[in-house]
Amino acid sequence: MTAASKLPAHVAAQANKASPNLVKEIFYGIGLGIFGGSFWKIHHLNERRKTEEFYARLEAGEITVNNCKGLTSIHQRCGSSCALGGVSSMPH
């Protein structure tokens, strides 16, 4: 009789399991890191684009920022009203 046949079934199953493949684990980690990092980078590029667009519009005079009673509001010079709180249209 072999040593594995003398052990209970659940212990023998664990003994016969293959050990984790280190190279495969490293590649899985690198792949998941690149995948997650790309989403993080895309998110930050979009936030940067929004910020640059806001300051470009502010510099061009398309919008103004007013601080009334401690609340900041953005006034657009487009003539259409916006449903967002604190954002309203200004006449040309």
From TrEMBL:
Keywords of the record: Membrane, Mitochondrion, Transmembrane, Transmembrane helix
Q: Which residues form a coiled coil?
A: none
Q: Where is this gene product found?
A: Membrane; Mitochondrion
Transcription regulation in keyword set: no
Domain of life, per UniProt, equals Eukaryota
Query: Where this protein primarily resides, as one coarse class?
Result: membrane
One GO CC annotation = membrane
Say if the entry is tagged with keyword Zinc-finger.
no
Which InterPro entries does the record associate with it? Answer: COX5C
What does the sequence similarity comment in the record state about its family? Answer: Belongs to the cytochrome c oxidase subunit 5C family.
PANTHER family in the cross-refs: CYTOCHROME C OXIDASE SUBUNIT 5C-2-RELATED
State the function annotated in the UniProt record: This protein is one of the nuclear-coded polypeptide chains of cytochrome c oxidase, the terminal oxidase in mitochondrial electron transport.
Q: What is the protein name for this chain?
A: Cytochrome c oxidase subunit 5C
Q: Give the source species.
A: Physcomitrium patens (Spreading-leaved earth moss)
Query: What taxonomic lineage is listed for the species of origin?
Result: Eukaryota, Viridiplantae, Streptophyta, Embryophyta, Bryophyta
